[in-house]
Each structure stands twice: as C-alpha cells, then as structure tokens.
Automatic annotation (TrEMBL):
Lineage: Eukaryota, Viridiplantae, Streptophyta, Embryophyta, Tracheophyta
Pfam family, one: CS
Family matches, as PROSITE patterns: CS
Presence of keyword Cytoplasm: yes
Record's keyword terms, sorted: Chaperone, Cytoplasm, Nucleus
SUPFAM superfamilies in UniProt: HSP20-like chaperones (SSF49764)
Subcellular localization: Cytoplasm; Nucleus
Location of the CS domain: 2-91
Record's compositionally biased regions (Acidic residues): 148-161
The species this protein was found in: Nyssa sinensis
Functional description taken from the UniProt entry: Acts as a co-chaperone for HSP90.
Protein name: Co-chaperone protein p23
Family: Belongs to the p23/wos2 family.
Keyword Ubl conjugation assigned: no
Length: 174
C-alpha cells in the first residue's frame, strides 16, 4: 500500500507552485496531463517505501510550459495554467481537501496583492537623493578582509621585537 507525502501548494494568476516534501526520493515519476491530472510516484527511505499522489487539478494546464525540479529534500513543480486566472481551490473536487495537501505560506500571495508583489512597489521616494543622507554604506565593507596580513591586533607574539644592542647591529642568533 502506498503512502501520500506532504504536498504544499500556492498560486499566482498564471501558475501553480506544487512542492512535494519527500527527502531522498528515488525512482521519481511525474505525469501532468493538459486536463489537469497530476500523478506522482516515488520511493523513499532505507526500505524503499512507495509514495504516490493522483489528483485532478481545478482547471486545465499548459504541460509544455510547466517545469519540475527534483532535489534531495523535495520535488518542486512549477505548473503553468492554461488560462491566466485565479482558482478558487487546487482540486477539481469540492469539499474538504485531503490531509496531505497544505497551503505553502512561504510562496502564497493573495489575488489582490499579486500586482504589488515586487519589494517597494508601493513606495514613492520622490526626489530623495539617498547618497546625500550620510547613512553609511559608501565605504568598501570588504576592506578588512582584503587586508588580513596587516591586522592591528595586539597579541604578545606579534609585538615581540628583536632586541637591538646599543651598537645598532642585531645580535647573531644561536
């Protein structure tokens, strides 16, 4: 009997983000059909426990523009919607979604916030010249890293100087 991995999802008007949390997945098989049928299967763990998902997405998708990425911790699928519109839910079937299906709050953007999703999109700085505000940041912060050999630390080892006799010539070392 197969198990269901945790599936997280988020959407934009033109695409879906589906993330399947399954570390060390082997024999990953993904199938996406234009009508919205999404099928996933893989094995995971030392015992090669089988996992699978078979869901019908809310609407049609563009299979050719959709992309999948399999990594060590999860499988990410960026699915292009056939029509650029917001879906009221992920699945075609109404009612309570399966327990393994969760909203990906890290990627979620509300429909009315999508157009301002760029940082600072709602800020108007007018004619402010930030270089004249003397807020720092003008110096090269990496200067200390480049000058590692010339640090001004005061450790005893570095401050030991050779004793020079009054004659001005260093004593020969034994």
């Amino acid at each position: 009997m197969s198990r269901h991995p945790t599936v997280k999802w988020a959407q934009r008007s033109d695409k879906l983000y589906i993330t399947i949390d399954l570390p060390d997945a082997k024999d990953v098989k993904l199938k996406l059909e234009p009508e919205g049928k999404f099928v996933f299967s893989a094995a995971s763990g030392a015992d090669n426990v089988p996992y699978e998902i078979d869901i019908d997405l809310y609407d049609k998708v563009d299979v050719n523009e959709s992309k999948a990425s399999v990594s060590l911790r999860n499988i990410c699928y960026l699915i292009k919607k056939a029509e650029s519109k917001w879906w009221s839910r992920l699945l075609k079937r109404e009612g309570k979604p399966p327990v393994f299906l969760k909203v990906d709050w890290d990627k979620w953007v509300d429909e009315d916030e999508e157009q301002d999703s760029k940082p600072g999109a709602d800020m108007d700085y007018g004619d402010i010249d930030f270089s004249k505000l003397n807020m720092g940041g003008g110096e090269d912060f990496d200067a200390a890293d480049k000058d590692e050999g010339n640090d001004d630390s005061d450790t005893e080892e570095e401050n030991v100087e050779e004793a020079v006799p009054a004659s001005g010539e260093p004593e020969p070392k034994a």
